[in-house]
Amino acid sequence: MTNKHTISILVENKTGVLQRIAGLFTRRDFNIDNISVGKTSVENMSRITITTYGDDKTLEQIIKQLNKLIEVIKVREMKPDQTIRRQLALVKIHAPTEEDKSEIIQYTNIFRGKIADVTPKTITVEITGNPDKINALIDLLRPYGIKEMTKTGTTAITRGQKTL
Amino acid sequence: MKGSKLLIDKLKENGVDTIFGYPGGVLLPFYDALCESDINHILVRHEQAAAHAADGYARASGRVGVCLATSGPGATNVTTGVATANMDSSPVVVLTGQVPTAAIGTDMFQEVDTIGITMPISKHNFQPRSPKRIAEDIDKAFYIASTGRPGPVVIDLPRNVLEEEIDISSLTINTDIPGYKPTKKGNLKQIKKAINVINQSKKPIIVAGGGAILSDCGKQLYEFAKLANIPIATTLMGKGIISEYDELSLGMIGMHGIQTTNRALTECDCLIAVGCRFSDRSVSNATKFAPNATIIQIDVDPAEIGKTIHVDIPIVGDAKITLEEFINQMDKTDNANWTKELIAKKRDNEENISYTQIPLKPQECIKEIMEAVTADTIVTTDVGQNQMWMAHYYKTRNPRTFISSGGLGTMGFGLPAAMGAQFAKPDANVLAICGDGGFAMVSQELATIKENDLPVVVCILNNRYLGMVAQLQKLFNDHVYATKLTATPDFVKLADAYGIEGQRVEKVGQLRESIENAFKSREATLIDVAIDREELLPIVPPGQSLDKMKMTFDEE
Known about the structure:
heterodimer, A: alpha+beta, Alpha-Beta Plaits, 5-stranded antiparallel β-sheet, 4-stranded antiparallel β-sheet, 4 helices, B: alpha/beta, 6-stranded parallel β-sheet, 18 strands, 15% strand
């Protein structure tokens, strides 16, 4: 059965590592739903979070093949119920009237988002959180007319004391 | 010290005595330093041959083979050899030249993104961007290439990195690779589980692959098989891990394997795979492969476990070390009936190959080749029917004496691989079996053979045909298209043009004599053998299970 999986990868911070990983996914016909990369607290080490779809067999191969890459230090699947997942979205919404603006601001506040920019005709909202929460706000904002939107990949960390 | 001098010193430190290479502009600093060293540089005539020669050197000796190509077209030419070594897990270090770091990314003359190109076809690659990195990257490259599951490692060398001066007294080398710690010892619990299954099985089979050859586990494998009385089949890459003249040997499995062995695989109740990756050419239809068997897989590469077929008991570890543990824990078991029966069946079904007609039947040629060689003769093959005739009919006696391009199926591999093997084993008799198609792809290497006085014997099974493709076309599409080689040159004259002894063989008995004489003379010899165009090789049609083997054209 095809499921959504979040995989966390600890890598050496070297030129080309991301290309190696992306290339592996392409070559072996694995899918990348979204990806985020950033440095860790350890020097010369980065962490890559990939969301992917596939059955258990595919997931097993993804993890094994990633482990084969020389610059990959650790690979873990992040169990959904033990994982904190966050995404950032910037949404520019059509808001020509004061009423529109006021409603959008209220929605944004309910979702603990921020107003990043306002012009006479638009309002730009910044929101971070669980991808589901972000989608919920976007659904509310869509009727006003979304002019432009950008999202980061999901980044994730395990709950509790466990570390990668 | 210049970067290039440091590089050469490091190569020597890693045991390099021979480099197969082709120079180019960005490599001038390298060649400047090389001419002052005692490393043997073999000038090939095409970079693809450099990589195949390094590969042949590695497969024949177990040591790391090294080749060198310049930037741009040199690097792209070498890639076929890199991919070939990668598919067959051959330890090769490939050095490529690169434009100076300051110019990288400007589409400079002869610039190509070698790192990007070789990423998916190598085990790993490096591009030292300062001479400081050379020492560390070379050490890491040799370590990565030769350990775990071996494979090719590419080192892309920008010109300025070779030219710049470096103070080696200030050099620190850290060869720790945090993400690379291959597992050598198989898990004991898993081994116990496997032994239980083997003890209870009535129809066990061992299938040994290229990994068994790479871990040099022939002695342990044989001891284990004897102890448990289990017959050993091999894949193409596993040929030679035990002598195919031995009574426990079942020969090759797979698409062009031995019919009784393939049938036995469908019947067996326990399959012990040793360093075998269950490729489609060995397994054919994965869902119908060994359907009744509990499958035990020993492999050093965890990613090979369960990649194509379901494995019941995976054991990650080096085959030699793991089999030693099996021997320690295993009691003598009794599958005598099954084993005896299988061996008898195989013997009965062995084709009685005795043909006397002209043109020669390839089977007759293989028989004569077997009569002309000794246990230590190294044969390399090209790709196509010549390769499968050899794989099917030729009985290999020792590991590392049957060298063939398995995974990538690279035409043009046989001749340069033979050159490499001859450099690795200067005293051995080396025989390259080629088809006329594959030989034509690399015939320029006769010059390299001549220049280095290599006593390589080249045997061309010449049917003026791209026989393998023609066979597939005939079997499945009922036509033959674009596979006739009507303008094949006179290979004897071609050999003569290179100053090499050339002979033509057309009659029974001549081939054996020619090969024996060529080995005796210790001179390079090309033997052009006129063989029958219409000769079918036993084949499992793609997608079928292994017991559905076609032996003739008419068979339904």
